[in-house]
Amino acid sequence: MDNKDKETAKQFYTLLVYSENVVGVLNQVTAVFTRRQVNIESLNVSASSLEGIHKYTITCWSAPDQIEKITKQIEKKIDVIKANYYTNEELFIHEVAIFKISTPVLLDNSEISRVIRKYGACMMEVNPTYSTVLQAGLTEDITDLYEQFNRFRCILQYTRSGHIAVTRSFDEPVTDYLNKHQE
Q1: How far, in Å, CA of 148 to CA of 154, rounded?
Q2: pTM for the full model?
Q3: How confident is the model at residue 173 (pLDDT cuts 50, 70, 90)?
């Protein structure tokens, strides 16, 4: 593989972006991806462990040099405090999925209940029309459970959160940055 092929080989990355809770930051962050023509695979925004700081978990496929440029551009935004990119090996990652499945199909096929238990999913609600199933886990587990339900033709609705992630380091990555700037 020559240098050009290495630069264009895409990898899956997760960006963790920290900002103050200010209107318009999400738009500024996603605009960087749009300008670089990189599709966001999943996006999750929530409060972080630090008061007043929000955390954006963004996943995408990108070449290494391109993800570095995207991260630097995001960090230049006024309301962004810190941005870092990671591979899956550097993070603890989970997703959450909710399945709405047909109760009549569930009751007619005991194998569906066994599949739910096998994947460690839990029943949230059961009524005569539909049942809701919640699963938290790795992307592959959620995809596998989806395929199992699909095989039984019982899915009425389905959604999943996309990545939620924490680093394998002790503190939030932004903690060191904030501590240095307070000194």
Answers
A1: 9
A2: 0.80
A3: low
